[in-house]
Amino acid sequence: MLRLEHVTVTLGKGTPLERKVLNGLNVQVKEGEFLVVVGSNGAGKSTLFNLISGAITPDSGKIYILGKDVTFSTPMERSRLVSMVVQDPKAGTIAQMTIFENMAFALKRGQKRGLKRFFTPYRWTLCKEKCSILGIGLEHRLKEFVGNLSGGQRQGLSLLMAIAQDSSILLLDEITAALDPINSDRIMELTAKIVTQYQRTCIMITHNMAQAIRYGDRVLVLKNGTFVKEYTAAEKSKLPPYDRAFWEFL
Q1: Where are the alpha helices (DSSP H) in the chain?
Q2: Nearest 5°: phi and psi at 57?
Q3: 51-85: pLDDT as tens digits
Q4: How far apart are the C-alpha atoms of 24 and 5, rounded to whole Å?
Q5: Rounded distance between C-alpha atoms, residue 212 and residue 71, angstroms
Q6: How far apart are the first and last CA of the chain?
Q7: Tell me, which fold does domain 2-247 have in CATH?
Q8: What is the rounded CA–CA span in Å between residue 84 and residue 169?
Q9: Which of 188, 169, 191 lies closest to 177 in space, CA to CA?
Q10: What is the pLDDT of residues 3-30, one digit of tens each?
C-alpha cells in the first residue's frame, strides 16, 4: 500500500538552522493496517506526514502508494490518495460554513472546484448518511454553522470529511490532543469504527501510549529521523501503557 525507501529530508537548507529531519527512512505499510508512530518532539513525525501527504518532497529516496512512484506528484494529485485529520478541530473545519457545506466541500477533495451548483439532493442525502455514522445527531443539523459545534463534534466532522472521498491512506495527526478525556475516547472509538467500516489504511501519530497500544496493529518509534524500534501486535499487547520500556528509545 505505502512504501518509503531510503527517504531523506533536510529543512532550513543553506541557513544556520539547517537540519536533517528524516535520515534514510524506510517503512512499509500494508493495506488495511492501522500503524501508530510515536516519538519525542522533533523526532520527525510531522515531517513524515508532510512527506506522505505531498506537502514536501524528499532530498532523496522514493515514495510508493499502491505500487506507483508518487515521490514528485503534486499535492493535488496526492490528495486523491491521502487524506488527513489534524490536531486542532478548528483547523480541520470551516466555522463560517454549515455542516453540509463543509461535507460537500470535502466531497470535492482532489477535484477542480468550479461554479457548478453546490447543493444537490444527492449530496444532501449523502452528507446526511455519513453524518449519521457518528451517532451524535449531526445528520439533523446540516444547516447549522460548524462554529456552533463543540470541539469533539468538530473533530468527528473532520474525520468524516477525511473519508468523504475514497482515498487510500488516512493520516491522523494527534487527533485527540485538544480534547478532554471523554471526547478523546469517543473520537478514538469512532475512528476505529470508521477505519474498519471503510477499510482504510491508517497511520496515526500520538503521544497517548494507551491509545497506541489499544488501536495500533504495529507501533513504530521514530527518533532522529529514523525508526529505531518496532512493537508488533504480540509485543505491544504485553506492554503496559506507562512501562518505561516504551520510552527507552525516545
Answers
A1: 45-53, 75-79, 89-92, 99-107, 121-132, 151-162, 181-197, 209-215, 233-236
A2: -115, 150
A3: 999 999 999 999 999 999 999 988 888 888 999 99
A4: 8
A5: 28
A6: 27
A7: Rossmann fold (3.40.50)
A8: 8
A9: 188
A10: 999 999 998 887 888 888 998 999 999 9
**What are the DSSP E strand ranges found in 95-232?**
169-173, 201-205, 218-223, 226-231
pTM over 0.85: yes
> How would you list the strands of the sheet with 68-69, edge to edge?
19-29, 2-11, 60-65, 68-69
Amino acid at the residue 185: D
CA distance 15 to 188: 40
The three cell numbers locating residue 68: 506507483
d(C-alpha 117, C-alpha 124), whole Å: 13
Rounded (10°) angle between helices 151-162 and 181-197 = 20
In the chain, where are the structural domains located? Answer: 2-247
CA–CA distance, 48 with 9 (Å, rounded to integer) = 9
**Amino acid residing at 183:** N
